[in-house]
Amino acid sequence: MATIKPFRGIRPPKKLVEKIESRPYDVLDSEEAREEAKGNEMSLYHIIKPEIDFPEGTSEYDPRVYEKAAQNFQMFQDKGWLVQDNEEHYYIYAQTMNGKTQYGLVVGAYVDDYLSGAIKKHELTRRDKEEDRMKHVRVNNANIEPVFFAYPDNEVLDKLIMRYAATEPEYDFIAPIDGFRHRFWVISDDKDIQTITEEFRKMPSLYIADGHHRSAAAALVGAEKQKANPNHTGTEEYNYFMAVCFQASQLTILDYNRVVKDLNGLTPEQFIEALKENFIVEDKGTDIYKPSRLHEFSLYLDGHWYSLVAKEGTYDDHDAIGVLDVDISSRLILDKILNIGDLRSSKRIDFVGGLRGLGELKRRVDSGEMRAALALYPVSMQQIMDIADSGKIMPPKATWFEPKLRSGLVIHKLD
Fold it and tell me: 3-state SS string over 69-113?
């Protein structure tokens, strides 16, 4: 059973939303944030990347930076750039990319569901990254940015959402940088709020799609507040954290590709020969070649694209992890041939999100920065849910969701 609740969102006035909204904190570095916020005192980067208010080179982990986030968050409210709703609402957040729209419900997700495993994860988290986000949540006493959940398709919720989608949204804008359309509706009808709550209650699980560190941080801070409150009842606002929940079938997962700096001492010919042990290798020429099905990969090396089809017996279609192309490529190419075992720490490999296209792989190899590139077929949402249900963890750098959630459309306060 998934427990959710509506909340009194803190939001920009309609006329200011495009001044305030931003990309998520973790998709750009400090200098990029500084550049995007230049000349805009209302940019949310002043709250989620507050190091931009300090001299260049100031660490984003400096204690003064966290304090500045809280000061700026309060200032935004004092100046009326962010205003809290008078009543508790759910919200609908729609994103349109390349003609396809996905509709998310913005809810308060239950901390105890995360702690019990009813909110399921598929990635490992790093304690240092958790602690960074925990500090940000603590100092602001708020979830400034949402996490990204998926839920099993639900006809009742779909009809309700489509009814709102036929009305004029509260916000409607095209975001800079990505050029995608973002729309936002407020659900204030008591009956609709009750319907949403009850439909989620029927769901055995929710699934973290993106934002594992933010989810962990939000839940852990909520748990801290539970322990610190001698009069804790379980109904306090800190028992919930902000999530945008999308129907699983609507989500777009792009390929997450690899580029490597060297061939581990092999010549190109030796590398291709080594691949033939576990893959059917076919030279596809100089035109960009994209894998078209599960267990097919594209290799770019010395100006040529190759199709690599994993041979039967090299994978296990009945195992949630063994079926994954990220597992096949990690075991049989990166580890076995190139001796790149730890994808999280190796300096010999980098990762390229599919939104950049295979042309970016070609560019990085042709420039001499990288020696070869490997393109993968995207993981499916069903595969992610299967892994989460099995209690297993996906290999690193396996999923790339697009479009990313914009930050600053709504904020959840913990009191």
Answer: HHHHHHHHHHCCCCEECCCCEEEEEEEEECCEEEEEEEEEEEHHH
